[in-house]
Amino acid sequence: MYNEINLIMPPVSVNRVNAVLDDTMKSLDPLKQQGVEAAEVVGKILSGLLKINRPARLKDLENSTGLASAKLHRYLVSMIRTGLISKSVDGNRYDFGLLSYRLGQFANHDQDLWNLLQPFFEDFVDQLQGDELGQAVGIGRWVGTGATMIRWFERDAPLSIRANPGVQLGVTTSATAKLLAAHLPAEVTRDLVKRELSQRGQKSLAAEKAVFSEYQDIVACGMACSIGARRRGLNALSTPLFDHSGQVIAAITVLGMAPHFEADLQGRAAQLLKQLGHQLSAQLGYKA
Prior knowledge:
single chain; 288 residues; alpha+beta; Arc Repressor Mutant, subunit A; Beta-Lactamase; 5-stranded antiparallel beta sheet; 3-stranded antiparallel beta sheet; 8 strands; 47% helix; 17% strand; elongated; disordered N terminus
């Protein structure tokens, strides 16, 4: 026999309910989540420096950023120490530092690299004369904590089948993401793998081991595939792009629709894709 328990709850005002709901929505919005104010101030200073003539006076930066000169000066001292900002010899003006220029050069080099390789991808797309060889070719990269597509090349098709650049891909389902994850240390990918498996109700150790076993196979054969992972009937093949140091810097992926494109690891599309990967890796100085 159960004992009856009476809970006496104090009255809750409508304003309080709205406040709780507002806090909940803020926690779900990345733009409203709690962050580090100092990092945001640094970003504001760098953005402000981009808008004005450089080297800039403290007063110019104050007007550009809206920050008080005292606060601005404290941040500039730390940013000079890290190399984000440099100071003129007379000590009165500020400009971007060595670290800022290195970041810019890296970003420019990254963009130049894909511009340099673009003709090879366009030629490869021209080789896809039949649906059995795929319909779109994309470049995927590991960015931050996951894999995403950064560029697409495709033949004329009645329906675009490519994923939007910037969308994070599943490391247990996407050919691109599996290919990139397979070449990363397990400590980098393990939590991602566990999270995705858990979302599908596969929390067993056996399921986790199966994923990492597949990763080993991917590295061994130099190719990853996915069958209907993102959309029913949409298949994919992916192969690595190596730089001169032997690091995988991108995944080259071919997409196509079943039943024409079966994403066969031993098929003609896989052979052509591997050849492209080897060719472009050699262009970047990689020696197998």
